[in-house]
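Handout, page 2. Input:
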Amino acid sequence: MRPRIVIIGGGFGGFAVAKQLRHIEADITLIDRRNFHLFQPLLYQVATGGLSPANISVPLRAALKRQKNTTVLLGEVTSVDTQQKSVVLRSEQHIPFDFLVLATGSGPNYFGHDEWQPQAPGLKTIEDAIEIRRRVLSLFEQAELESDPIKQRALLRFIVVGGGPTGVELAGALGEIAHQTLRGNFRHLDPSIAEVVIIEATPQILNGYKPWLVDRAKTALARLGVSVRERTLVKNIGQDRLVVDAQGKREQIESRCILWAAGVKASPLGAVLAQQAGVTTDSGGRVPVNPDLSLPGHSDIFVIGDLARVTLEGKPVQGVAPAAMQEGKYVASVLQQRIKNSDFRPPPFEYHDKGVMTSIGRAYGVVQLKRLAFAGFGAWLLWLWVHIVYLTQFTNRMLVVIQWGWNYFTFNRSARIITNPSTGDG
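Output:
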């Protein structure tokens, strides 16, 4: 019998494994709850009307249709039987494996306050992006109907909790909508009265960036009407308000739109797997792995992406797309060698950190590479090029290039569609 490889999760890590194994003599099964691969770094542009969901996603069956050794299944894995070597779907179907790769990703981390999620949605799925887009655009429509300027301003106060790259990009896009995109679209409303605030608990937004790059980012955000409040910890989120602690001083901020970008936690499957393997997950729910990314005590099970706690030289590897893709390619190479030689002992995984970059509104970005750091229009162009290159299919790249070009020259965001939350249409 040919070896059976089961991959759970069609995100960056799982998809990279499947693509790398396209020529291997094995039967591969890719299982995901969604029928598409999503390019998450551009999800905030769907949330702010710059791109449509189809621009940044591709059906898994279409992407893998030429791989005759690969079967795609739409389903949710609820548990892993490490003794019988099978995964169990919610439908109670058992899928046997010889090798297993878990890459189920992560969701928003509310740090023990999951009750905040209805009031402050995160940004991890297409549904999240469509809901955020609905909330944001609906408030501008409500403000157009409001004749009281004070009430208009109250309606258009947007709070982004979290000052990492996702929070900064989302806040910058919201500022761009208010100050550029919607200019002249209303008859009784000046959209530029909108207030966008980033709430960050640590001393600095864009943690890990050079201080002068952070200063440039703050200046660019200020031009878009975005204010930054650092050293400010969220204590509670309620109906249209949040309570913060700013260096010992409690304050209540009214807002009809609170968005969460303050961290992620691994999918619940990580805890299930860790319990069976007898290991302890970290505070973010990630599963500790061996240097070859295998599960301790189970050399035939690999954990990658946001689900894995990978430690190199005493430091954890960040849960970002490049890391997940590198881990996926590494595991694929290990599997290829293990199938040829069961006694193969792989070298430890090595992560090549190429740097970080963030886009801030239209035509401005900050980039920090190993030996080079810069900000401005050139940084934004590099950000565009990198994201276009990493998009999954040629069709997606062409659609995004055309849409971005149109948005740049017309100051428009053509995907500004308000949908009914009960339908989820995009």
